[in-house]
Structures are given as structure tokens and as C-alpha cells.
Specification:
Length: 118
């Protein structure tokens, strides 16, 4: 499949074979180079500055993603709580308004302060 894609872009079978070898050389390294690469740093040897920087970048990115996730969760919860509070206030206001209408005696201010004692 790679040969067909490469040959389509290159144009001839001979050029395709050479291009495919070039791709192989870029992707895979010689056995001796791989062995040296693995021996170069053991578990106890210090990390190179590039390795430390790469790990730090990964940690910072993970921390940023976690921070964004928790901030989004907090915002959703705050919105939910605010909606619940607003609904409760509305129900309470409606109940108070119904109570006032039921007990209204036509006097203003409310009947509690304007009772006429006989």
C-alpha cells in the first residue's frame, strides 16, 4: 500500500523503490545505533536537559487541562445552584403573594396594623 502511494507521487517504479528505502531509513535506525541509544542512558543516569524540559512541558499541559476541567465543572455547579436558588425564591415569593391576597382586608398597610377593635 505504501508502494502504491509512493509510486503515485513519484511516477515510476524505480523511483518508488528508492523513495521507499529512504522512508525506511528515516523511520528505522541501524541496530548498532539503536543499541547505543538504549545504552546511552540507564535508569540511574541523569536525564538530559531536553528530556527534563519535555517532561515539564507535559506536566504543565496536563495541569492546565485538569485546571480547565475543574473550572468548567465548578462553573456548571455554580449555575445549577443559582438556578435552584432562583426557583426556590420564586416559589417562596408566589406563596407569600398568595397568602397576602387571601388575607387582604382592603386596608393599607396590612391588616395586622389596622385592626379596628370594637
Amino acid at each position: 500500500m505504501l508502494r502504491e502511494g509512493t509510486s503515485a507521487s513519484v511516477g515510476s517504479r524505480q523511483m518508488a523503490g528508492e523513495a521507499q528505502e529512504g522512508v525506511r531509513q528515516k523511520v528505522f535506525m541501524q541496530e548498532s545505533d539503536a543499541s547505543n541509544f538504549l545504552k546511552r542512558r540507564s535508569k540511574r543516569s541523569p536525564k538530559s536537559r531536553n528530556e527534563v524540559n519535555a517532561e515539564n512541558r507535559q506536566k504543565l499541559q496536563a495541569d492546565e487541562l485538569q485546571k480547565e476541567y475543574y473550572e468548567e465543572q465548578r462553573n456548571e455547579f455554580e449555575n445549577f445552584v443559582e438556578e435552584q436558588k432562583d426557583e426556590q425564591e420564586e416559589r417562596s415569593r408566589e406563596a407569600v403573594e398568595q397568602w397576602r391576597q387571601w388575607h387582604y382586608d382592603g386596608l393599607f398597610p396590612s391588616y395586622l396594623y389596622n385592626r379596628h377593635h370594637i
